[in-house]
């Protein structure tokens, strides 16, 4: 399985999203990660379906839409229609996760489930065969530019093992505090989709930062510990 780089536009200049997306695509971005926040599930408010629709018009790569909202079921259709190729939802807000995962698939998008840092891996036990991917939060969601929580590395390993045990080869995605210094470790642990916001858009050259992060991530594949 290859490693995909998904720059998070949360740390980009929202007045120039088209330029931001073009730059990271030139740097080899495989996906664009879109952080949707509602001010309820997380203490921040970002963007909704109309912005996703506009981004879809200019992006050449698939949009990976991360819903950090209290009532995702209500908005799945709108995000799918706006052009989301991947939609991930937090297990913490969904009592009927199985229904939600299958609703996302029925809309033609890849269905992902997300674990907050304090949510145990066992929360995935029953849904593991059904998901297209799992997102491990390596910071508490809500803001870009936070520090990577070290325990997330072994958590990625545990999620990978749980998916493998369920016969699911879908990727593990990691999101929060990823940079050139720690990316090799999380890839070696089993992460195949790498989200990075601050490390890319906080740099003076997002195209180069994307290229360098990807090189560091791909370099990890040659480590003995790599899967
Ligand atoms: C955090 C978001 C992340 C965030 C990552 O709530 O889900 O996608 O943008 O940003 P960095 O890489 O800056 O931690
Ligand atoms: Zn995110």
Topology:
Blueprint: E1 4-7, H1 17-26, E2 32-37, H2 49-58, E3 63-68, H3 76-82, E4 84-90, H4 97-106, E5 110-115, E6 133-137, H5 152-165, E7 172-175, H6 183-189, E8 191-196, H7 198-201, H8 206-219
Parallel strand pairs: 1-8, 2-3, 3-4, 4-5, 5-6, 6-7, 7-8
Helix pairs in contact: 1-8, 2-3
The structure holds D-xylitol-5-phosphate and zinc ion.
Number of domains: 1
Helix content: 25-40%
Rounded to the nearest angstrom, the radius of gyration is 16 Å
CATH topology descriptor: TIM Barrel
The beta-strand count equals 8
Give the strand line-up of the largest sheet: 1-8-7-6-5-4-3-2
Individual helix count: 8
The largest sheet, given as strand count, sense and whether it forms a barrel, is: 8 strands, parallel
Written as H for each helix and E for each strand, in order along the chain, the element string is EHEHEHEHEEHEHEHH
Q: What small-molecule ligands were found?
A: D-xylitol-5-phosphate, zinc ion
Q: Would you identify the CATH H-level superfamily?
A: Aldolase class I
The chain-level mean pLDDT equals: 96
The N- to C-terminal Cα distance equals 9 Å
Structural class determined from secondary elements? alpha/beta
Give the overall silhouette: globular
Describe the protein's architecture and organization.
By secondary structure, this protein is an alpha/beta fold. The protein has one domain (4-222): Alpha-Beta Barrel (TIM Barrel), CATH 3.20.20. It has helices at residues 17-26, 49-58, 76-82, 97-106, 152-165, 183-189, 198-201, 206-219, and strands spanning 4-7, 32-37, 63-68, 84-90, 110-115, 133-137, 172-175, 191-196. An eight-stranded parallel beta sheet has the order 1-8-7-6-5-4-3-2. Helix 2 (49-58) runs parallel beside helix 3 (76-82). The longest helix is centred in the C-terminal third of the chain and has 14 residues, at 152-165. It binds D-xylitol-5-phosphate and zinc ion.
């Amino acid at each position: 399985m290859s490693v995909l780089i998904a720059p998070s536009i949360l740390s980009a200049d929202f007045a120039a999203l088209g330029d931001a997306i073009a730059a990271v695509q030139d740097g080899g971005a495989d996906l664009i990660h879109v952080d949707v926040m509602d001010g309820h599930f997380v203490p921040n408010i970002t963007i909704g379906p109309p912005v996703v629709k506009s981004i879809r018009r200019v992006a050449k790569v698939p949009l990976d839409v991360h819903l950090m909202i209290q009532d995702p079921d209500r908005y799945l259709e709108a995000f799918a229609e706006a052009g989301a190729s991947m939609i991930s939802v937090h297990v913490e807000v969904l009592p009927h996760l199985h229904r939600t995962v299958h609703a996302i698939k029925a809309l033609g998008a890849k269905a992902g489930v997300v674990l907050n840092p304090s949510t145990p891996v066992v929360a995935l036990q029953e849904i593991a065969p059904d998901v297209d991917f799992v997102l491990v939060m390596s910071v508490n969601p809500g803001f870009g530019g936070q520090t990577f929580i070290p325990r997330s590395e072994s958590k990625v390993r545990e999620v990978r093992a749980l998916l493998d045990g369920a016969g699911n080869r879908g990727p593990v995605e990691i999101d929060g505090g990823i940079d050139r210094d720690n990316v090799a470790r999380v890839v070696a642990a089993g992460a195949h989709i790498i989200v990075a916001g601050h490390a890319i858009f906080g740099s003076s050259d997002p195209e180069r930062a994307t290229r360098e992060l990807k090189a560091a991530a791909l370099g990890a594949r040659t480590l003995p510990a790599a899967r």
